[in-house]
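In practice, a research group might receive sequence data for several interacting partners and want a quick structural hypothesis before committing to experiments. The following worked case mirrors that situation: the sequences arrive first, and a predicted assembly follows.
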Amino acid sequence: MMQDKINQYTAEIKAANPANAAELEEFRIKYLGTKGIIKDLFDEFRTVSPEEKRVLGKVLNEFKQLAEAKYAELKESQESRAKSQDIDIDLTLPGEGFELGSRHPLSLTRIEIIDIFKRLGFVVAEGPEIEDDWHNFSALNFPEEHPARDMQDTFFIKKNSGKDDIALRTHTSSVQVRMMESGKPPFRAIMPGRVYRNEAISARAHCFFHQVEGLYVDENVSFSDLKQTLYHFVQELYGEGTKVRFRPSYFPFTEPSAEMDISCTICGGPGCNMCKYTGWVEILGCGMVDPNVLENCGIDSKKYTGFAFGMGIERITNLKYVIRDLRLFSENDVRFLKQFQTEII
Ligand code: PHE
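A structural hypothesis for the assembly, expressed as tokens:
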């Protein structure tokens, strides 16, 4: 009886041909496992008569060796097959290319502006986009209920008594206040960041945009320092020979205030539709920091003077790349964005 079984299993083992590692494992469990056939046969062997034992002992041991040898052989052949599959790669095939992203045009402009001012010794300062009334308006000499607050169509988050209003900042001048409040002059910093104004979205206006503002406070800072710094900035950004002109203007936080125009970057002067046939385009607002602002921030306005300026990154970018629709900057259309491939990584 046992002999018959062994004969049958022997035939089965010889014919076994597991196709993969899982089937090989099934083979092992079936014959060699702790509850497998060989274990069962040895259990049964203990119950047979001494005469039978003499014959069957040898047969059973041979059978066990056969099963173990077959398992070892199958395992080795499967492993070597797997190995040869591993290196079965055509090394002459071209590699998979990967696409390089590109910088957003506004980032390119921001980086360029920061670079220019860094070379002049300005540091970069940042502040929160959600601001209180003090930092966005009051400290900057906007009187309460003053119509100048309407100049900057504000998104209010919490409208309280005016003094405690919380709003999305309308300009990064708020960062100038934070900087002056928390440090001591001299200050020489630029403040890049996103700002918000409640305007209908069109080709020429958006409800958010990006600014870089600058602040320079020290003893004996004069309007000529302001002019020279901005003149230098424009030569670096738009190339030598770009002309500048200053027109008187009004901001609550600067006195005197001015707006700066540059000769049209597209036509260079004679007039085109970018400069509305004037030859000039406005790029920033600036002025001498109002003594009230210095005092609001705890700075002695008898000892210190300063200048400040602020520009829209979108505007600077439009002039540089001749982009006529502001909405392109926030639509994330890759066909637009891909045109700004650059070496700056
Ligand atoms: N904060 C002004 C604005 O957003 C710009 C500005 C900054 C003007 C500094 C003068 C001086 O319009």
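Before designing any experiment, note the following. The chain has a mean pLDDT of 90. Residues 50-86 form the longest helix (37 residues).
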